C-alpha cells in the first residue's frame, strides 16, 4: 500500500550525516535533511549544515519554518484563530479600497465593527471551531445587544472572512451561508414633501437665523433640483458647472476619513457618475452665488474659509433647524419648572428617583426638548408643593406649550427626503422609472434594463418638470445668499 503524502507545508523525519572531517577523522561539519512537501504539492529534500548534529537540526528547522512563512504566507490552517483570518480579509478590503473598487468608508466601517463586536466575541476561536451554531450565537448576540444594522454588517464581514478561509483551504464550507436572515427593521412608507410641506420647510428655514447663516436654504433648493445626496451636493465645484446651459458634473462626493479629514473622491458606483441639467430657477440661484473672484476649484457651497463642508456638520444643522427644541413656549415652560424645582430644594436626580422616571427626563423637560403632558405637570406640581395659583398658571403654560409648532410638523424631514421628493415630482410629471433612476444616480434593477437600455442620456425634460414644480419656492426667496456661519 503506497505511503500517504505529507500534508502541504510540513516535513518528515530529520536525519543527520557527517558532511566533512578533519585530518584526524573527526567530524567538523554535519548535514541535516528532511523531506518537505511544498505548496505546489511536490516533495523536495531540504538541507542545512552545522558544526554539530543538534546545530544542523536547529538550522534546518528554522529554514523549514521560514519556508512555510514565506511561501505559505497566504495559507490558513483550520487551527488558526478567526482573528488571523479577519486580518487577512481586511487586508484584501484595503487593497480593493486602494484600487478604487470599494469606498474608503467601507474599510473604516469594517475595521470599527471587527474591533468592537467581532474580535472580542469570536476572534480567539480556531477556524474549525467556528461552527454554524457558534457563529449564529455571535450574530444574534450582536443584534440583541447592539442593533440589527451592526449585526448585518458583522454578518457581511464574516461571510467574507470565512469565504477567504474556504479559498485558502482552512475550511470546507462557509458557516455564515446557513444562517437565517437577522431580521429587518419595519420599513416605513416612503414619504416625500408635497407642495404644502415644501412651503412650510422653506418658511421654517427663513425664520431661523442659524439656518440662514448655515446656507441651508440654497442647499435644500439644490438638492431638490438635482436629487443629489448631501455628500454629492457638497462636492460640486465651480469648474463642474456650465453657468450657461446649467449642466452639472455630479460624479464626486465629500467624505470624512479617519486620519485624512475631508476628502473629495469619485462616487463609488458607475450609476452615480452622471451629469444633470439644472432647472432654470436653480441655475439662477447658482449664478447669483458666483463672483468673478470665485476660484474654479472651489465648492459651490463652501465653509466659512472657502473650503469643503463636512456632510455631518450640514446634517447636524438640518436636524437643528427641524428640531422641536425651538419652541419658545416650551423653553419658557422648562425654565419655569426648573425654578419651581430649585425653590423646592430638590435636584434633578432626587426628582426622577422619587417618581421612578428615566434619569434624563427632568433634564429634557427643563431644557424644552420634550413635551410635557398635563398628567406629568400635575405630578411635578404636587412634588414641588405648588400653591393653587402657581399650579393653575403651570397647567395653562403646559397647554400653550403643547400646541404644535412648525418645527414639530416637519420633524420627519431629513436630507434624504429631498431625494424622494425629487423622484416623486418626476414620477408625477410622467418620467419613466429609468429616467428617474438616472437622475438620482441609482443602479438598474433588472438585467434587461442594465444591458439593453441606453444610460446617462441627458434629460432636459427632468429639468423642465422640476422647474415648474419648484420655481415658486425660489421666487419667494430672492434674498442675497449669506455665507455660512460654521
From TrEMBL:
Domain of life: Bacteria
Family stated for the protein in its record: Belongs to the 'phage' integrase family.
Chain segments annotated as transmembrane: none
Record-annotated Tyr recombinase domain positions: 188-467
All residue ranges annotated as the HTH cro/C1-type domain in the record: 337-391
Name of this chain's protein: Integrase
Lineage: Bacteria, Bacillati, Actinomycetota, Actinomycetes, Propionibacteriales
Keyword DNA-binding applies: yes
Annotated GO MF terms: DNA binding
Entry keywords, A to Z: DNA recombination, DNA-binding
SMART domains per record: HTH_XRE (SM00530)
UniProt GO BP: DNA integration; DNA recombination
One Pfam family per UniProt: HTH_31
Amino acid at each position: 500500500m503506497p505511503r500517504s503524502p505529507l500534508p502541504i507545508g510540513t516535513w518528515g523525519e530529520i536525519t543527520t550525516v557527517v558532511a566533512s572531517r578533519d585530518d584526524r577523522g573527526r567530524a567538523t561539519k554535519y548535514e541535516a535533511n528532511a523531506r518537505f512537501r511544498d505548496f505546489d504539492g511536490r516533495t523536495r529534500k531540504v538541507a542545512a549544515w552545522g558544526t554539530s548534529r543538534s546545530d544542523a537540526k536547529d538550522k534546518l528547522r528554522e529554514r523549514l519554518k521560514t519556508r512555510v512563512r514565506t511561501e505559505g504566507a497566504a495559507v490558513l490552517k483550520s487551527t488558526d484563530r478567526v482573528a488571523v483570518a479577519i486580518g487577512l480579509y481586511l487586508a484584501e478590503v484595503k487593497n480593493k479600497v486602494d484600487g478604487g473598487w470599494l469606498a474608503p468608508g467601507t474599510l473604516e466601517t469594517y475595521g470599527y465593527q471587527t474591533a468592537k463586536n467581532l474580535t472580542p466575541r469570536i476572534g480567539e476561536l480556531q477556524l474549525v471551531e467556528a461552527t454554524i451554531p457558534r457563529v449564529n450565537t455571535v450574530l444574534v448576540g450582536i443584534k440583541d445587544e447592539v442593533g440589527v444594522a451592526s449585526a448585518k454588517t458583522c454578518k457581511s464581514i464574516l461571510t467574507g472572512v470565512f469565504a477567504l478561509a474556504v479559498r485558502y483551504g482552512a475550511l470546507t464550507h462557509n458557516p455564515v451561508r446557513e444562517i437565517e436572515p437577522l431580521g429587518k427593521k419595519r420599513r416605513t412608507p416612503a414619504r416625500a414633501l408635497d407642495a404644502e410641506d415644501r412651503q412650510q420647510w422653506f418658511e421654517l428655514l427663513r425664520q431661523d437665523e442659524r439656518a440662514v447663516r448655515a446656507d441651508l436654504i440654497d442647499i435644500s433648493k439644490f438638492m431638490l433640483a438635482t436629487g443629489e445626496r448631501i455628500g454629492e451636493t457638497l462636492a460640486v465645484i465651480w469648474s463642474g458647472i456650465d453657468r450657461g446651459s446649467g449642466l452639472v458634473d455630479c460624479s464626486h462626493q465629500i467624505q470624512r476619513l479617519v486620519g485624512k479629514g475631508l476628502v473629495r473622491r469619485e462616487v463609488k458606483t458607475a450609476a452615480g457618475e452622471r451629469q444633470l441639467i439644472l432647472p432654470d430657477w436653480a441655475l439662477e440661484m447658482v449664478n447669483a452665488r458666483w463672483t468673478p473672484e470665485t476660484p474654479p476649484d472651489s465648492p459651490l457651497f463652501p465653509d466659512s474659509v472657502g473650503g469643503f463642508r463636512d456632510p455631518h456638520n450640514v446634517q447636524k444643522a438640518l436636524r437643528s433647524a427641524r428640531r422641536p427644541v425651538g419652541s419658545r413656549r416650551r423653553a419658557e415652560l422648562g425654565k419655569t419648572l426648573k425654578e419651581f424645582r430649585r425653590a423646592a430644594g430638590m435636584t434633578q436626580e432626587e426628582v426622577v428617583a422619587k417618581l421612578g422616571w428615566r434619569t434624563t427626563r427632568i433634564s429634557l423637560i427643563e431644557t424644552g426638548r420634550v413635551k410635557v403632558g398635563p398628567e406629568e405637570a400635575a405630578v411635578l406640581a404636587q412634588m414641588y408643593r405648588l400653591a393653587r395659583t402657581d399650579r393653575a398658571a403651570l397647567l395653562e403654560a403646559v397647554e400653550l406649550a403643547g400646541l404644535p409648532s412648525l418645527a414639530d410638523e416637519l420633524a420627519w424631514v431629513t436630507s434624504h427626503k429631498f431625494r424622494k421628493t425629487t423622484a416623486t415630482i418626476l414620477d408625477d410629471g410622467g418620467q419613466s422609472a429609468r429616467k428617474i433612476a438616472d437622475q438620482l444616480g441609482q443602479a438598474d434593477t433588472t438585467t434587461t434594463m442594465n444591458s439593453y437600455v441606453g444610460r446617462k442620456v441627458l434629460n432636459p425634460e427632468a429639468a423642465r418638470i422640476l422647474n415648474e414644480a419648484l420655481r415658486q419656492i425660489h421666487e419667494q426667496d430672492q434674498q442675497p445668499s449669506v455665507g455660512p456661519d460654521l
